[in-house]
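The material for today's practical consists of a large collection of protein records. Backbone structure tokens are a discrete shorthand for how the chain folds in space. An example says more than a description, so a record of this kind follows:
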Amino acid sequence: MARRSRWIPKLVAGGVALLASGMVGLGCPAKEERIQITVEGIAQLRGACGNTCAPAGEQPNEQQCLAKGKPCVFDPDEQACRRMDACRLAGHPPPNLRSDAQIRLVLVDPDRIKIRAKSACTPLFPCDQVDQQNQGKCLADGINQALDGAMPSGLTYDDLEDPSVVLPVLAIYQSPRGDGDAGASDGSPCAITNLIACAGLAAPVGGDGTYDLTCAACQDGPPGGFGVDNGPCPREMAGTKTTACFLEGCAKLLETLAP
């Protein structure tokens, strides 16, 4: 009986493949779609995670908050200032892209509203550069290296035939203490209670086909997210309303994963 051939696309990171396909059993070379996070990609994440209502200083007060303008409100329970329409997961910590975090890449089937594959949960070590360009490069290099380790053979699933039908999403988790330890009751580093951001990946228009971050939604960030291509960051996922932010839909999907 002849062996059945099939195409298996897969995603690989940082010079490793992200979505690669090869004909199993026929000795055909794999076709690979690659991830390479760049400074431009990090700019989308930083844009989504920027809380424009947050005044300077560690302990903002209501007067400082209201002075930032009409969209800004003061949360007395958390002693924080944020947009009244902010993308928000109740009880989740605010983002700090200069501190330790954990990341995981998932492949989302938007038709089935289901995560079909996930990378290992892996640490993202902190970057704290004064120069913004250097900070962006440090974060990009850190994510590339982390994904290299989290998915050394790439990321795929058995019946994936067309890479364009899946949404690669990078989930970012952070401890409320900002020390890289999720601190959840189950001790898992990628605990859903510490999700702070989800970023979508696509091949930017005019590029060489390599996947990069093109959009993101972040805790306390703008409800519409931020990006040059919001296709990988749909606001309606997993049954959420169209007015919900991408982070909310992303969180619903990630809740279905074992830590």
Remarks:
- The mean pLDDT is 80.
- The longest strand covers residues 101-109.
